[in-house]
Every structure is written in C-alpha cells, then in structure tokens.
Inverse folding.
C-alpha cells in the first residue's frame, strides 16, 4: 500500500486530496472522500461564514475523519472564513487564487495545517517562508483557474525549490497519473475532475454527463484577457465567451458580467447554454460514475501496479 509523509502529517490513509471545486465540493462529497481514506475538502468559494459553518457541521456529522476547507482568496468573504476555520478548528486549509501569507501565521497558531495551491516556483518559495506545511503544485491541465506551466514541468521544479512536501495536481485521473506524480517527486496528489462523477457528488446530472462524454480536446481556456484564465468544457457558452474575449468592441465590464454566475448555472441548474462546466484535460479519462471509495481504491491499486512494473524497461 502507498503511504507517504503526507498521510502521517494529516492522519489520512491515502495521499490524495479531493479538489475544492466551487459549487461542487460540499460537505457530502468531502465526507465521502475522507471516509474513503483521502482528504475531502469543502469549497468555501464566494460564500460567507454562515454557509461555510453549516457545511463544516454537516461534514462532521458524516465523518469522523480529517477533512479540509478550500479558501478562495479572491472571495469578498475571505477574511471572515479565514477566521471561521480557526473558530471551528478545521484541521487543514487549502488556499487558491492568490497569496495566503496574511493568514498563515494565525492559522498555524491555531494548529491548522496550511497547504496552498501554487502555480509557480516563486509562490511556492514564498508560502514556505511564511510557514506553509506543504504545497499543491497545480499545472494548467487542471479545471477551473489555471496557470501557464504544465504539471510535468511545474512539479519537479517546485520539488527542487522547497523543502516541504509537494502534492501534484492537474491532469491526474487514474493510477498512472499518481505514479507519474511520485516519479516527479510529489508525495501526494490532488484530484478534481474524476470526483465530479463520484456518486456522492451533488453536482447537476447534466454536468456529470458533459464530463463523461468529453473527449481529449474538449476543454478550452477562457479569461486570459481579464487575467484570470479558466479551463472548462467546450459548450455554447464558452465558445461565445471566447469570441467576445477577442473582440475589441466588447468591454472588460461586459465580459465580467457575462461570466458572473455561469458556474452556478452549470453546477446547480445544469444550464447547457449559459453555464460554465469547469473540468480538466483529464475529463476524457473519466468514463463512469462510481462511489468515492471505489475511485480512491481503484486509483491507488493501479498506481501500485504501475510502480511495480516501472523498471521492466531497464536492462
């Protein structure tokens, strides 16, 4: 069985995090992944402290295993949810969409393990200096907000640059991806897209259907013009957005309005015309809906087989 220092650090069985996907990663999905032996994560997204508090309490009613909260630092409620995780004694905080340095000291003082998502070596070094316990190096293959570097190039560079544990994210949907991450020096992985089709995931059935029918070239990146590139599945909305993004007659304000609420329309309403179906390039590797426990155990069983056979080409 594969275990790494990440497992010991967090008290989990498998070194796998479930991605903190907005409008998707709720208490039910997080608890299911934690019960499966990984680290389930609740997405705080743009919600306020009252909403997040309810989700934390619900997760605790569903699991006695460790789970985390993902705090999106661009949220207007970032300050209040940063305090809430202290008040609620959440064991792990994962951060995204920004630099969490202003919060790390307080979180550490509260005994919280702090694990930022980073898309560059510079940010990895910075958060390590501020006291982060580990980092998640996320390549541009991932769904949602993306950076420029791929997982294959980012992970080893971050591993070489910091002394704290590194988890790999972006383009990982099976045991082969997990094995590759370990070969790059990572001590664990974060997986988002495959958990979109977990039985316990409450995303709209239409969203799951889009993921399950996705092919290798069916995702695209929009939002570069506004400085916040996002990867999603090609659909009428993303195609129309891309046209307007490169139309000089369309203002930035119009683009902002167009994108506002589009993820909710996909995840909650299943709106195929106006929704953004965030998913990574690994969506084409996701072929069936199954319980979170099966996803975790299946991925690691395959990873073990891959790692055992990794030397067969050596002479």
């Amino acid at each position: 069985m594969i275990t790494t220092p990440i497992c010991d650090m967090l008290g989990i069985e498998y070194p796998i995090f479930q991605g903190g996907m907005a409008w998707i990663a709720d208490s039910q999905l997080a608890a299911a992944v934690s019960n499966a032996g990984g680290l389930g994560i609740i997405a705080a997204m743009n919600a306020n402290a009252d909403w997040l508090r309810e989700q934390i309490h619900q997760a605790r009613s569903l699991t006695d295993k460790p789970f985390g909260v993902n705090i999106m630092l661009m949220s207007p409620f970032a300050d209040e949810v940063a305090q809430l995780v202290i008040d609620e004694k959440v064991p792990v905080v994962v951060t995204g969409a920004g630099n969490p340095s202003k919060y790390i000291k307080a979180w550490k003082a509260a005994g919280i393990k702090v694990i930022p998502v980073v898309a560059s070596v510079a940010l990895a070094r910075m958060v390590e200096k501020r006291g982060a316990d580990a980092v998640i190096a996320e390549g541009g293959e991932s769904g949602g907000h993306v950076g420029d570097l791929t997982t294959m190039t980012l992970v080893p560079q971050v591993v070489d640059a910091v002394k704290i544990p590194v988890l790999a994210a972006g383009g990982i949907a099976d045991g082969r991806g997990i094995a590759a991450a370990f070969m790059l020096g990572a001590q664990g992985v974060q997986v988002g897209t495959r958990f979109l089709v977990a039985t316990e995931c409450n995303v709209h059935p239409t969203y799951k259907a889009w993921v399950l029918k996705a092919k290798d070239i069916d995702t695209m990146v929009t939002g570069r013009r506004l400085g916040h590139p996002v990867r999603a599945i090609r659909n009428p909305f993303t195609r129309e957005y891309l046209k307007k993004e490169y139309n000089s007659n369309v203002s930035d304000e119009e683009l902002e309005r167009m994108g506002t609420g589009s993820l909710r329309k996909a995840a909650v309403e299943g709106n195929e015309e106006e929704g953004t179906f965030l998913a990574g390039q690994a969506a084409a590797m996701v072929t069936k809906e199954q319980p979170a426990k099966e996803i975790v155990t299946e991925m690691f069983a395959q990873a073990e087989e891959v790692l055992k056979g990794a030397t067969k080409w050596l002479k």
Summary: Residues 199 and 291 are 5 Å apart (CA to CA). The mean pLDDT is 95. Residues 292-308 form the longest helix (17 residues).
